[in-house]
Amino acid sequence: MTRPVPSRRDAIADDLRNQISTGHFKAGERLPSEAQLATRYTVSTPTLRSALALLQGEGLVEKIHGSGNFVRRPLRRITYLGGVAEPATWITFSTPLRVTTRTTNIEAHSHLPTLLNVPPRSSVTEVLYIALEGKTPHSLARVYVPCDLALADPSAATPSPEQIAARLAGPRPLLTEVQERLSARLPTQEEATTLRISTSLAVLSLTRVATDTSGRVVEAALLVLPGDRADALFTTHLSAEKRTSKA
User: Residue 213 above 90 pLDDT?
Assistant: First the structure.
């Protein structure tokens, strides 16, 4: 059987991929301009950009608007550890990263009323976490908490991350359920811009909802983990009784 001839796009991507893997283009190095590469491979600029998009989708090349295409430094892989019956924190990840936070009080809109089981336009606190490896964005999460749970100081219009952490670390109703929903999808344009990834790079999208004994949702977390640097591990611990019954 005759093997199909690779397209120009695939052939260019293969050549650049090989040059990156052999160290001809080193991590952090800027690639020749798109015009130079198009001339070198005798292709149109759209074909060249299509080849680069394949490498961007694989996480090998990073395009920085206004600066060019760079060989991406290998980013640390992290594992999200699922099945933990505690409010979501960045400690949930097996490999800690430097994290920045931004706290805002907002009205529940779009999917939030359903997610948090609150009336539309209810006041909730949003905490945006961006995990960084050095100066490079690694992953992000948005955590939503009803304001009466998040406010350590009721007179504070917008609580700080420290206030929220202190409140959540204090006495709280017991949780009866933590539901985690994991899917793979393409990032939104906002997510791609924040994480500096290609819109063709798949991400792991995880929604985590914690409910207390009264049935109230006390926290909802939306995590976005780029697929080239993250995976998720869910472990089920079986009791001795269940193991015996199966024997």
Answer: no
Q: Is residue 99 domain-shared with residue 32, that is, in the same domain?
A: no
Q: What is the CATH number of the domain that holds 52?
A: 1.10.10.10
Using CA atoms, how far apart are residues 234 and 3, in angstroms rounded to an integer?
Answer: 40
Q: Token pair for residue 45?
A: 């600029």
- Does some domain include residue 215? yes
CATH code of the domain covering residue 118: 3.40.1410.10
SS3 state at 106: strand
Sheet order of strands, 175-185 included: 98-107, 123-133, 136-146, 217-226, 203-212, 175-185
**Residue 156: band (very low, low, confident or very high) from pLDDT cuts 50, 70, 90:** very low
* Total domains in the fold of the chain: 2
Express each pLDDT in 235-247 by its tens digit.
877 766 555 555 4
Write out the DSSP string of 125-159.
EEEEEEEEETTEEEEEEEEEEEHHHH-SSTT-SS-
Q: Which domain holds residue 37?
A: 8-71
Q: What is the DSSP letter of 91?
A: G
What are φ and ψ of residue 23, in 5° steps? Answer: 90, 5
- In this prediction the pTM is 0.69
